[in-house]
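Q: I'm a student working through a structural biology exercise. My instructor gave each of us a protein and asked us to get a predicted structure, then write a short paragraph describing it. Mine is nicotinamidase. I'm not confident about reading structure output yet, so if you can add a plain explanation after the tokens, that would really help. Here is the sequence I was given:
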Amino acid sequence: MKCLLLVDLQNGFCPGGNLAVAGGHEVIPVANRLMAEGGYDLIVASQDWHPADHGSFASNHPGRQPFEMGELAGKPQMLWPDHCVQHTDDAALHPDLDRSKIAYIQRKGMNRHVDSYSAFRDNDRTAHTGLAEFLKGRGVTDLDIGGLATDYCVQASAIDAVEMLPGVRVRFVKDLSRGIDPATIKAAEQAMAAAGVQTVTSAEILHEAG
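A: Happy to help. First, here is the predicted structure for nicotinamidase. I'll explain a few features afterward.
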């Protein structure tokens, strides 16, 4: 059972969005081609879905600015611009993404007291989203992951997948992903590799699919 997980392919993380990742829109055609030709049995997506008063937003910390380090739930927290607020266009999946092939969408980041980079659990590592249980129930054996952003939500999702889906082969699809900072992208790729995540390209996946 081969599955593709598309991480946070939302307007908010693409050019023009509130927390845009450079070149974020460039992964949409890659995602569409993989969904159509990658030989997947199951395609799922994650979606940041924050309340307006989320504690990771700098606007909810008087005197603080986006991209400063703050604190949330007693832990260091990057303070972000308001982004992917529930029921806004910023939170919507990118309009060019082929929604018709996505079987399941896992929303995350709804608890204002903790951030949620991973599609599988909150950053405090206690509250699970339910995605791992869903994939186990479908008998997934191979999981390819890509999206936005490499150095935050993609990294966290891939590493959690290795831990929470024992026996499943987890791969990071490099050209299906874009990141925020070259240094943290490199560190994320190293961390994923150290956790047992393989790196592949969409071309390799398409070749496998024949």
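A: Here are two points you could use in your paragraph. Strands lie at 2-7, 42-48, 69-72, 75-78, 104-108, 142-147, 169-173, 198-200. The longest helix spans residues 150-164. It's a good idea to check both against the output above yourself.
Q: Great, thank you!
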